[in-house]
Amino acid sequence: MSARRSPGWVPPLVLAVALVAVWTVTAGLADSVVYPGPGEALRSLRSDITDSRFLGSVGDTARVLLLSYAAAIAAGAVTGMLLGLSAFWSRATLPVVYALNSVPKIVLYPIFLLFLGIGDLSRGSFAFVSGVLPMFLIMVEATAGVRRLHLKLSASLGMSRWSLLRRIVVPSVLPSLASGMRLCFGLTLIGLLLAEMFSGSSGLGYELLRNLSLARVENIIGQVLLIGVLALLPTLALQQLESRIRNRYEVSA
Amino acid sequence: MNTQTQAQRGTASTTTTPIVRVEGVEQHFGPVHALGPVDLTIGRGEFVSVVGPSGCGKSTLLEIIGALQDPARGRVEVDGAPLTGPRRRTAIVFQESATLPWRTVVDNVAFALEVRGVGRKERRDRARELVEIVGLGGFENHYPAQLSGGMRQRVAMARAMSMDPDLILADEPFGALDEQTRMLMAEELLRVVETIGCGVLFITHSIQEAVLLSDRVLVMGRRPGTFIDEVPVDLPRPRAHAVLAEPAATAAQERIWAQIRTEAEVAMRSER
Amino acid sequence: MNTQTQAQRGTASTTTTPIVRVEGVEQHFGPVHALGPVDLTIGRGEFVSVVGPSGCGKSTLLEIIGALQDPARGRVEVDGAPLTGPRRRTAIVFQESATLPWRTVVDNVAFALEVRGVGRKERRDRARELVEIVGLGGFENHYPAQLSGGMRQRVAMARAMSMDPDLILADEPFGALDEQTRMLMAEELLRVVETIGCGVLFITHSIQEAVLLSDRVLVMGRRPGTFIDEVPVDLPRPRAHAVLAEPAATAAQERIWAQIRTEAEVAMRSER
Amino acid sequence: GGSADTAGVTSFDIAVSNASEPYSIPWLVGKDQGFFAKRGVTIGEIVPGKGGGTTVRNMLSGDLPMADVGFTSVLESSEAGTPLTVVAGATQSVYGLDFYTLAGNTRVQTINDVHKWAYTNPQSVTQALSYILPKVAGATQDIERVSSGGAGEGVALLEAGSVDVAVVPPSVVAKTGKFRVVVSSADHLKKFQQSVITTTPEFAERNPDTVKAVVAGYAEAVDFIRANPAKAAQLYADYIDIDVAAATTIVEKAISYDNWGAGFDAEAIQQAVDAQRLAMNRTDLKFCDLFQKTYLPANVPATLPAECEGTR
Amino acid sequence: MKTRSSVVPSYVRPTPRRVAGLPSPAWTVVLVIGTIAAVELYARSGAVSRLDLIPVSEMAARAIELLGDREFVVGALLRSVLLICVSFAASAVAGVAVAYAMARSRWMHRAVKPYVNVFYALPVFALYPVMVVMFGTGVLPIVLLATLFSVVIVISHALVGFESTPPIATKLARSLEMTRAQQLRKILLPAALPDILAGLKLGLAYAIIAVLATEFILATTGLGQVVNRAYNNFDTLDMYAGIVFVSVFALLANLALGAALSAFDWRRR
Ligand SMILES: Nc1ncnc2c1ncn2[C@@H]1O[C@H](COP(=O)(O)OP(=O)(O)OP(=O)(O)O)[C@@H](O)[C@H]1O
Ligand SMILES: Nc1ncnc2c1ncn2[C@@H]1O[C@H](COP(=O)(O)OP(=O)(O)OP(=O)(O)O)[C@@H](O)[C@H]1O
Ligand SMILES: [Mg+2]
Ligand SMILES: [Mg+2]
User: Where does the record say this protein resides (chain E) (predicted)?
Assistant: First the structure.
């Protein structure tokens, strides 16, 4: 009852404070070189973000992420929509893509390294693949789910395929596109970080692993927090976008 | 042409070419024999309803006439010529959800014109007019989700009117509405059709509605649907709800009900 | 008690305590005045229908009598005693989706008994009996998704019967069915109610249905709903669809339609 | 990176395994002091590998023509059929690879008390050490060896009490008083070829001058560190973010163990090969063909173990 | 096939049963076999080094051979399978429980939901060393990590399930005066079951990913590490065999769970 009156951000904040409290206490009890408390984590984060090399890494990750994310969204959306229009070919192709998507992609990363070498190209491609498959699947399903009634309406008006795509299919799949964009952002980011952790010379994943070999866990936690915050902003923005589109475009709003 | 059809209203034409002529049409979906063979003629300006149990093939027939399905067998002529594809002057009114949820009322009404390449200003002006005509003035910029079911159906009706149709195919357009709204909408449709003076093929589950609206009611039997009865409705036009109390109307209703009651009982048990 | 109510069927009781007595009941949801004040009395074995435009508060009234909502104001007595919580002998029939899709027909019918702790064998036997009574013999182990809407509603009716009710509250139980199935179901309900001999509060949008079924039809006005008319239906029992053709029935229908037509028109414009 | 296959490559990144440890110091110094630049070679970034064979992989797959790599992984890679050439030495002591226990652990005092021994990765130098050190020290007890996966995890294992000793990076030791050295590897093994500068034979043949320049630059950097430990410590401290005092200690100790050297040292190489043969249980391990003396500058030693001299 | 040309716009025509004489499953097979054959031919053509790519037939042969290798089966395969099973079971139980708490308590819902929404943008794998510190070197850190990684997807699906319980069923429950336990057992759980099952299927996929990724990058044992080690040791054959093995394993696990779970899904009955 009292929760109804408190603003929306209070409960999550209370939970966060509780978790930090637990962290502080357990870190104090553990008293370990490799289990720092929040204070140490924040201190090391502060020194990290004044370090130009670290900032360079952040920039690198952001740049590669942006490119591979944009590519994943665009490629997944367009190919997904095109395939989704054909029920027959969807049925023939989807089992393979679903199978591919259920493989833990990280074990495929060595193949990327073998053929694309170390560097932006291989980790970017890996991030791209991590994001593009789910996006593709979401869009195929969404396109297949365009209301048959709307297709019939279009047919009765003698609409061309292109006109159908523009006037019916695209607006119908926009809500799915938006939630796909939100979902794939996280997946692309994780893919990129894993790739950087496995083999990289720069980027946040590389920084994480470098700290691991130096046993600097406080920096790791600090950086995990930072990544969380950095990932949070676009995620929230995408969430906002999604709920707007849903409100506007969905039948049963 | 309009004046001609106006003059013929209420009397099924036999001298001029009918607007719809269906001969020996059948449909199969794989092993399922879904429809027919059926013959059907709709005169210019004639209002024909089809009632029948669920799954008997009513929608199938309508879609074949609307060029949304190819029949497995038989001939379909509209306006004297064999069908070659969706016709410009055939308007289909689907159930309420055939409004596009991402378009405002005006843009939904203007949709058919837009597809046909009518310029932006012209189609919007025309759409606004039609929105007024169907009584949605003031809701031009609302989205379908902000409207009641009955209001959405008015949008669909206005869109159909924008196509200047000589044939309207309506597939249970009021199926999702509650009875009171439904009756109001039926009266509305009567007014519109009487204004345009076009032929109508109207599919419904409601016997009352069929009787209220039609010149003729065709009763379809269980799958594969064929017509098992044809009930003429001799009531004066223009009509309103009150005509249903007249003996001719109650008699027609009872006759239709008797025809399809057994069919409906069996259908209720077998259909899923 | 059963014999007594049987004897009184058709004549609203004034000497014995009525099964439902509602006095000055009102409901508010925050700023929304949703209902009332209304007064209502239902005699033992009496069948009372309520019709009215969407959103006028019909469901609210029914839920208050079913103890699913507390009224903001007023008194509710069922079977002579003020309500203290859901009653064992009040059965509520919701719309068709109130069958549980993960249970077979038998298990759906046995659900109320199961919740009340009746043993497995006993409740299944009783459920099988009821399944036969509502005409679903042979479908015992089907799931709701394998049934038609009408058959699902029979399941809900059997479940209600399993509770040995003296009062049935039905909230648009046939709202989702097509008209023909609906009429069949209405006849079915009549038979069941006449067998059990319980009081019924029946909410519907269909004037035909209300007239076919009821001893009295109450017409509710727009929100906040109050009763604007009470139409007695003087037709012999047992009834079937054919009674609707009698002048008393068409007169009742026209009177009700005239009462709510304006309300419905306004409602269609404002409701979403 | 640049492209490895075209002749006349003079600008590239360098792969250094475990770059956060002292391996990287000569490279940092050489870059900073322009020892490579003045010979016409631009070293871009120091690309770290994770130890084991990863660095060699990175070198081969990632346009990284040359690398400072653990010698054991070079041995393993070449066994697996990868064409590699060792063009110079690099790290030739086991300084920094000391095995520590918790300061509070009174049970473990000497190498003879160690029963659970954590190394980092399979086929890493630390694994080889876990075999050769007890042998050299004459410890005969049963030892269970576990792979921790990394230095951080090793520390974690120590704290959790699941192992007796583990490698603790000097930078961590410098930061806290929690660890006590049990096995000081460099005291048991005076010389041990820990890492070497390697490249593919193809690159070496096409770009001999570049290879020579890099080796010579490395050699000069090693000399510079000996002469200016403070400057080297400063660079190292900046690179891995530790304070200068700690870095100075590390550099000075490394110098005292003669940690870096561009030349080939027969004793160091022999020691490392023996350790690997023991760890892998493979007595027939071949290594002589890997070494190419032609790229070494004149002022560094160039001796190979006795078993190689006959074949040349 | 067609006796006369269609009058219907192509996009509302019924889906053809066959294209070029083949039904869609046959095309799926053609697609898969075609891809495999292309890789096989490319690998055999000599255009690519054996250090980079080997023929698929050899990968498969080696993958099958691995099954006979005791060390691989016991040390890597069984170990990973065990970890996956344990994490999956843990996240299934915890996920449904948390979702139920969220469905019951508005406060919980509002407190947890934002984190559920953004969770998968976080690199939880980086917490592995911290877990090693807290829980030692055994299987616990990987299990915890994998549970953490998969529980969130279970929560979000189960929550959707609980929340999509038809209001009418809840009303029915109230009119029958059901207790909370009865409501959970007889209404909420069965109503949410299809969504919970969908969540569990994803949960398994995520548990597999988490276990293998952790093994691959950070740990020193298990199926994931087999691939990593083979990669590092230039054992291209073993690397590809491991990849094939892991892929087939993940695929079969997902299919098997999907089949097992759909038996409980009343929406498919
Ligand atoms: N595309 C299709 N594939 C297979 N069977 C179909 C298809 N379309 C319709 N049918 C079947 O054909 C029969 C007739 O269907 P149709 O939709 O025309 O019935 P209807 O009379 O409109 O029913 P309703 O009153 O329920 O709308 C039904 O049995 C239906 O199951
Ligand atoms: N829980 C609630 N919170 C807020 N408003 C409510 C709630 N329940 C009902 N209302 C409002 O109270 C009014 C009456 O609702 P009710 O459901 O009783 O109408 P109804 O007559 O049953 O309508 P319908 O015919 O559409 O079922 C409506 O305006 C509705 O929006
Ligand atoms: Mg139909
Ligand atoms: Mg209601």
Answer: Cell membrane
Question: Residue range D198-220: average pLDDT?
Answer: 88
The whole-number pLDDT of residue B106 equals 94
C-beta of B32 in contact with ligand 1 (< 6 A): yes
* Average pLDDT for D179-198: 87
The three-class DSSP label of residue C269 is helix
Where on the phi/psi map is residue B17: left (φ > 0), alpha (ψ -120 to 50), or beta?
A: beta
Of chain D, the percentage scoring pLDDT greater than 70 comes to 90
* Region of B46 on the Ramachandran plot (φ > 0 left; ψ -120 to 50 alpha; else beta): beta
Total H helices, total E strands in chain E = 12, 2
Task: Tell me the CA distances in angstroms from E135 to A32, C48, C58, E147, one per residue in order.
Answer: 12, 69, 61, 14
From residue D124, how far is each of A25, C271, D47, D190 by CA, in Å? 37, 75, 18, 19
For residues C182 and E32, what is the distance between their CA atoms, to the nearest angstrom?
52
Contact residues, chain B, for A154 at CB < 8 Å: 115
Average pLDDT for E131-145: 79
Q: Whose CA is nearest to atom 11 of ligand 2?
A: C34
Q: Is C141 exposed, middle or buried (0-12, 13-18, 19+ CB in 10 A)?
A: exposed
Question: What confidence score (pLDDT) does residue D50 get?
Answer: 61
> D56 versus B64: which is more confidently predicted?
B64
Residue of B nearest to E17 (CA): B30
**pTM score of the predicted model:** 0.85
How far apart are the CA of B56 and the centre of ligand 1, in A? 7
The ipTM of this complex is: 0.83
Question: SS3 of C73, please?
Answer: strand
User: Hey, what amino acid is at D205?
Assistant: E
Which residues numbered 183-212 in A keep a CB inside 8 Å of some CB on D?
A: 199, 201-202, 206, 209-212
Strands B167-171 and B90-93, sheet pairing = parallel
Per-window interface: D 148-177 vs E, CB < 8 A? 148-150, 152-153, 155-157, 159-160, 162-163
Write out pLDDT tens, residues E111-122.
888 888 778 877
- CA–CA separation, A250 and A226 (whole Å): 35
What is the overall mean pLDDT for chain D?
82
Q: Please say whether the beta carbons of B106 and B141 come within 8 A.
A: yes
Predicted pLDDT of residue E92: 95
Does residue A118 belong to the interface with chain D, where contact is any CB pair within 8 Å? yes
Identify the band that residue A34 occupies on the pLDDT scale cut at 50, 70 and 90: confident
Cβ–Cβ below 8 Å for B143 and A251: no
Tell whether E106 is within 8 A of chain A (Cβ). Answer: yes
How many A-B residue pairs are in contact by the CB < 8 A criterion? 60
For the beta carbon of residue A149, count every other beta carbon within 10 angstroms. 15
- Structural domains in chain B, CATH included, are 43-71+85-89+166-272 (3.40.50.300), 97-164 (no CATH)
Tell me the two tokens of residue B198: 């076009």
Question: Residue D281 CA to chain centroid, in angstroms?
Answer: 22
Count of Cβ atoms closer than 10 Å to residue B138 Cβ: 11
In which order are the strands placed within the sheet that holds D195-199? D42-49, D11-17, D66-70, D195-199, D85-91
CB A54 within 8 A of CB A48: yes
CB B46 within 8 A of CB B40: no
DSSP state of C225: B
Which pLDDT score, from 0 to 100, does residue D5 have?
A: 41
Separation CA E221–CA E238 (nearest Å): 16
Whole-angstrom distance, CA of residue D117 vs CA of residue D188? 17
> Residues in chain C with pLDDT < 70?
1-15, 96-97, 264, 267-272
Strand, coil or helix: C167: strand
pLDDT at B8 over 80: no
